[in-house]
Structures are given as structure tokens and as C-alpha cells.
């Protein structure tokens, strides 16, 4: 049982945002994109509070947050609540919403509506729904980025981290220490006797007489009684606090330590909660754990351990929803399920489709599966607005410093990232996946892309004059150069039936074509550039830089750029600057 979808309307920057959800839900986006607003909206859906005017995106319109609970377990509810809720369950799903019509209203004016699938309409606050939701989804555990960790760790709360942990401890105590529990309850009964029973302390009775006499002057005949509930072991836990001691061994209040220590301890206790919950099985409703930037103040290794703990919790009766700026909190398996958000031109929060929604449709084809894997492994694409796709490691090695030298700042500064595919054949599927979820990616390829990949995707007309002229150039010139051609008339490394080797590599053959047919190559290159694909007209990046194809040559070029602060030592520096501007 979990929230499968949340729809947020008119809540801060979220004018209309739909959030598809699973068990483990990373949310990424640049600062001030609305990540925290999504967490707060989900918290408000599950925990009633009155919203002030600043929370309304438009104060003339109601704030609503809708949720769909899938696999609803009605057996958790009392019989009367089961009857009240069952008629609204459709396909094991329950759709509900919290609504506040105007700012600063009373708590009684907050509404819980449920969607009636029989009438296809919202029904206003049916009897028992509030209580049923509190059972199915107990009060969420919401940890904000700048929240005082002392509130969640330093002292007991029914639904905070230390409270949930101590609940586990108390369960073990009751199960394993029957005699001690009985003795403690007897002792607490004796305490109750001094408060309520025959051993009651005289001062309490005297207070009741004084208070009754004071009331009598206003309301004759009324008597005041002071009552104390018999203390329970649970009450002792509720009064507990947490202290820490360092190397000196002196316990100090939790809040007296630095933010790094507090945050690390906080997240470590969440990890412990995951371990204990796994062991206990955690029967009952689903607890939604909302964390804003859990990686704050944590060492990189600690971040990865925290990720595994949150994943562990998500496999129990916890639904994990968190915002993050750290790729370390998003493993390869979770990249496709990550929610990416951004602000549009009107300063409203917008959610992209999850990459999984597009990747699944492409993964059936082997080349597409490679493209999906390339995107999945490049988790930094989740944290960017601009994406440049490249064929391999050469561009990954050269382009970041080239961009920095040309523009005076990094590509990341411009919210961009460079993602490498496994080959030129993966570039187009990767572009299609990213376009399907709202990105506007660009691709960078060597000249052979024009002839080997582009025609099959309909990007270049293989019977156009420039294309045919280039194929004919290979047919006329390659035999004399000792270059073998394949069945499609393109350079290949090996001869017929694998016998013999070309005197030039295919990459070198395309560089020779670039020299021999510059006008035709330029026409083909410009055709692709209008489709957001940059092809090197000289064959490959090395031809424009004027270097060889070894890592030593590339490193020497980068060192020269660092030393001079410019790209004038390139063979064709203007081409390099043009690429950077296009990126």
C-alpha cells in the first residue's frame, strides 16, 4: 500500500504539478525549483494544518492536493470504517484530496474529499474518512533541510525518528522482560496511589478545596476534582531525551553539537530505524518519510550508506520521498525513477516525465537498450537542464576544458552536462528518450555518423546529390588508396571475407573524404545541424584541433590551453569556438 500519484494545485510554486510515485522517490532540480514545496504539499495532504496566504499561488483559488492510494488494505480499519470507505475503493485504489478554499481559515473549514468513481465526482468529507486515512497513512515523518535536528532526535515524539525507534525498543522490552515490566507497572501503580488513591498526598486535596471555594463565588454548587492517570511505561519513554558524549566522555545535549554531527547522527538513526523495522516486519499502515536534502553535512561514503538504508526502508511499510542535489543518493537502479523538476518562464514548478516512462518503450531494441543504459549510468543528467550527447571518451576528456577556456566558465555553470553513449548508433535513441521527457538535447558526432547512422533515422536523404557524390568519391578513390569498402560503399578496416587490412582506418578515410568533398560535406553537416546534431566536417575533433588520436596528444593540447588561456593553438580554432557557442 502506497501513494501512487500526487497532484498538487495552487500550492506555492506548484500551480499544477503531477507527481507519479513509487516506494523510493528521489526529486531533483536546481535550487528554488520547487522541490521543498512538493514535500510540504505531500506532508499537508497527510497531516492537516491551516495554510497562510503566502502558500497560495493564487489566493482567489483553493489549494488542493490529491493522492491515490494503491492496494488499499481495508483490513487495517475497524468494521465501521471499512464500510464507510469501501464504496469509494476502485480497482483496489482510493483517490482523495485535502482542500483549503481560502487562506487563514479555521481548522474546521479544511476539507477532505474522496473521489466517487460511481458518479465520477468528488464527495465532500464522507463520515469516517479522516480517521481511516490516519490509520492507513499515519502522520508522516517530515525532515526539512534546515530543520533543527534536535526536534526529531533530541526528544521523544510520537512520529519522529527517536519516537519510532523507541517504539521498537518498547516492543522488545514488553516481549522479552515480562517480570520486569510487571514490577515496573506495580511500582507505577504505587505512584498512582499517592496521586489518586488512599495514600493521596494531602496537598492535592487542599488544592481541590481551595479551587472549589474560588469557583463557588461564581458558580455555587460546582466542585473541582484533580485527576491523574495511572502512569504507564510508555509515558516514561515519552519523557526521554537524547544526549551525546564525545571523546571526553561527558554527555551533552544533542543540540550542543555542530550541525554536521547532528545531521550525521540523525541519518544514522534513520539507518538504524531501517534495520530494526526490517527485523520487526513493521505491520500496519504506511509511514511516508519526507526528507529535504538528506545528504547535508554527510561524508560521501555516509551518503551512499544512507541511500542503502532509505532503500531498505522503502521495502518495508515506509514510502521514501526526498529531494537531493547529490548523485550519490541516486544509484544506477533508481536513475530512471527520479522525478526531475524545474521552473518555467512563468516561475512555476514543472515536473518532467520520469526517464522510465520513455526508456521502457525503447528498451526492446538492443541498440535502444544500450542507449537506456547509457542514460541510466549518467546520473548527472538528472541534475542538468542542458544535455550534450557524445560518442565516447574523447569528447568527455576534451570538451569540458575546451568549453571552460572558450567561455570563461564551465558547462556545468550553464546547467549543462555531457553524456557519453556506447557508440554513434546510440545517440539518436538517447535523444529520443530525453526529448520524450521534456529535455532538448543536442548531439556531437564524427563524420561517419552522416553515412552510417543518419540515413536509417531519416535525418539525411541517401539519394540526395551530396550523399551520392560522397559515396562515389569513395568508390573512385579508395581502391587507389588501399582502402577496402563494405557492401554499402563505405570504408571498412578489413578486406572481403576478412582477408587483408586497409592501409587507412575508416576514420582516416572519412578525413580524406572531408578534404576531397568539402562543399558536399558542408551541405550534409548543415542539414544535421538544423536537427540539433553537430557533425565534425573535418572528420573528427582531432582534425580540427590538429592533434593525433592518442591520450598523450589530447593531454598536451589541454595543457597548452591551460597555459595560454586560449585555443589559438588549434588547427581550426574558429570551428571550436563555433561548437562551444552552439552547445
Question: What's the quick description here?
Answer:
The chain has 583 residues and is an alpha/beta fold.
Explain what you see.
This protein is 42% helix and 16% strand. The protein is α/β, with parallel strands linked by helices and 583 residues long. A hairpin with a 5-residue loop joins strand 13 and strand 14 (349-351). The longest helix has 22 residues, at 259-280. It contains 21 helices and 20 strands. It has a 6-stranded antiparallel β-sheet, with helices on one face. It has a 6-stranded mixed β-sheet with strand order 8-11-12-3-13-14, with helices on both faces.
Shape: elongated
Number of strands: 20
Q: SS-based structural class?
A: alpha/beta
Low-confidence stretches: none
Spell out the blueprint of helices and strands.
Elements: E1 2-11, E2 14-20, E3 24-28, H1 35-46, E4 63-70, H2 79-86, E5 94-100, E6 111-116, E7 121-124, H3 129-136, E8 141-143, H4 149-154, H5 161-176, H6 178-195, H7 202-216, H8 233-238, E9 243-244, E10 252-253, H9 259-280, E11 287-292, H10 300-314, E12 318-323, E13 339-343, E14 349-351, H11 355-362, H12 366-377, E15 386-390, H13 393-407, E16 416-420, H14 427-436, E17 442-445, H15 448-452, H16 465-481, E18 484-485, E19 491-492, H17 506-516, H18 518-529, E20 533-535, H19 541-545, H20 551-564, H21 573-582
Helix pairs in contact: 5-9, 9-10, 11-14, 12-14, 13-20, 13-21, 16-18
